[in-house]
Amino acid sequence: MFCQNCGAQLPDDARFCHECGAPTALVSAELTWEPPQRPAPVSVPVADPPVGVYVQADPEGDAIFALAPNVMTTLGSARGKRSNIVLAPRMDVHRAAATFEAVLEGRGFHRTDYRGESIWKKGIGMMTAMQYVRLRVRGNLLGVSAWVMIGVGSADFCEMPLTGVVAVIPKKSLEDSLNAARAAIGC
Fold it and tell me: Kind and range of the H or E element at 146?
């Protein structure tokens, strides 16, 4: 073997040139780094989804999430009209939803089922309008629907958005609750 720097003849196992001190090809080979080999990916068979599990369409939710963020808009529902707003919280959307719900709970709302929807409700309808809030999460957005209804006990009539003069005091109370929850999540 010969030195690549000065050309001196070297023994085959020399690591450095005895003439100029330059490293030989053996040292260069030891210093060459190669990334470790990664094992080949293993394919894992995926089981078919369980029979009978279907995703239900939510046309009302689709309409809500088509709204511009932070603009309260009235949309029709199956039983009247609701006020809707889409929020883009600065925190994790699931944490924002939990914070929003905690504010509602602190203001006297309780979680209940309303015609197959999981909602937050306040009031029983005797001499006051019942207040309702429904939350939906899609991606990093939080959709909020709010409405009031005048009724007696569990008998209710028509969903009303937060606009108009009928039930203006409960509507204002519900709007105040929504604004407090929005402030809590930074929207």
Answer: strand 141-152
